[in-house]
Amino acid sequence: MSSVDTQSLVSGVRTAPDFATFLRIEMLLTLRQRADIANSLLFFVSVLALLPLGLGPEPELLAKLAPGMIWVMALLATMLSQENLLRSDFEDGTLEQLILLPQPLYFAVLAKSLVHWMAMGLPLALLSPLLALMLNLPGEGYLCLFVSLLMGTASLSLIGAIGAALTVAVRRPGLLLALIVMPLYVPVLIFGTGAVQAAIDGYAYSAQLAMLAALLASAAALAPLAAAFAVRISLDN
């Protein structure tokens, strides 16, 4: 998408400064940049499809590793797609215009994170039962895996926005972005895999899902604020 198109969309926000307009803009931008999201989804599916070839066809081994491997690959795929979350807006000057708008930058970052989840996290969750079947995951874990990925990937998208904002002015932020967000991803990974493993073992997993919901609520409230502050710091430098 050209900078002229992007800036014309942002100018429309001045006449309708609400969250719905931000969301519409981000959905249009994402539809025009489908290749980045498709690459991350292809990475997720390809690696998990190759796991039986690398680890061997033993059903017991695959079933034991499936919860952790699906969650780790979902985390990595989400992180790969986060690098460009704000970069195009930074390069064409749209971020500077967003800062000058009367409404807080919080809503723009929240809209970007939500659309990123809709384009990345939601497809990952929808694909998870099929990939779990390929990895011989016991049937007891399917529902928990789907629900935990729905909430967990939303948290990952929100948290990743902080790293994307801090590294938006860096030419090649891949490693730096990973170093920033990876420690923040660890609680989501722990409770996500823990919930699926508890479901497989026949234990109650509502506590782990409750923790994922609490992490999501905290991320929705705090991550866009932190990312908006980080954007201002990056632009000032």
UniProtKB/TrEMBL annotation:
Tagged with keyword Membrane: yes
Membrane-spanning intervals of the chain: 37-55, 114-135, 141-168, 175-200, 206-231
Protein known as: Heme exporter protein B
Alphabetized UniProt keyword annotations: Cell inner membrane, Cell membrane, Cytochrome c-type biogenesis, Membrane, Transmembrane, Transmembrane helix, Transport
Keyword hit for DNA-binding: no
Membrane topology, from the record: Multi-pass membrane protein
Gene behind this protein: ccmB
Function text: Required for the export of heme to the periplasm for the biogenesis of c-type cytochromes.
Alphabetized InterPro entries for the sequence: Cyt_c_biogenesis_CcmB (IPR003544), Cyt_c_CcmB_bac (IPR026031)
